[in-house]
Amino acid sequence: MPTAINSNYSPYAGKTKTDDKKEDEKGIIERSNEATETKTERGTRIVKKGQDLDKNAFFKILAAELANQDPTNAKDGTEYVSQLAQFSSLEQMANLNSMMKLTGASSFIGKVVLLRRFDEQGNQYAGIVRNVIKNGDEVKLSIEYEPGKVGEFLMEDVLNITDDINENSKYNNDLLNAVSLIGKNVLMDDGKEKLSGVVKGVVRNGLGVSIKVTITKDGKEQDIYVPFEYVTNVQEDGDFGDIENPDEKPSEGGEENKPEVEEKK
């Protein structure tokens, strides 16, 4: 006859039977909940990855070790003193490392950083560090990656830092200059090809200032975004004509412009 399993069965009750080989669903859930608790039955804090082991947890472990040691083969007291000294030294080093990490992160505030993270469209995150957040051993940076939009990123995600005040001033000046181009025709050169179009808007992010330009390509109008630095010429209206292809120079003078040369007899 099969044995009925009590719904209150707990795998940590200490009572086992050879026939009780299966656990009901409730027992499995209870054990899962116990595994995710922050403290053991004796009150010892469960430390997860990325968290600190404090002195209280260490002393509880030490007390449990003393209470459960073999009285016929007890450890020497100096061994525990040595363990305490090692723990104290490691704790000081961990605290020092944590403070240095926090100090280093604080020096990023107000600077432009480039991250190794990308958004859903594949654009790389970059922006100005506004705040530093410390949670245990984890240090996060609060970064304004778009005007009015702030996100939290790990300090380890930082790839590049712009700490030049002049660079930040240039960043702001580029924004003002780009705004003044709205509605005007611009000629752009990225080193590979030259394009011209009308500026429709300006976009600013941590990577710099870009302009939204409406160009005509293959008989169709389309909007593109180009860095402000690519602009080489600006005019109120009209097109740039031969300026777009300066390498195609006209022949120097026609037959009618050739100078008359008097033949010597």
Automatic annotation (TrEMBL):
Keywords: Bacterial flagellum biogenesis. Required for flagellar hook formation. May act as a scaffolding protein. Residues 1-10 have a biased composition (Polar residues). Transmembrane segments: none annotated. The keyword Cell inner membrane does not apply. Residues 1-43, 235-265 are annotated as: Disordered. InterPro entries: FlgD (IPR005648). Residues 236-245 have a biased composition (Acidic residues). Belongs to the FlgD family. This is Basal-body rod modification protein FlgD. GO terms for biological process: bacterial-type flagellum organization. Residues 16-43, 246-265 have a biased composition (Basic and acidic residues).
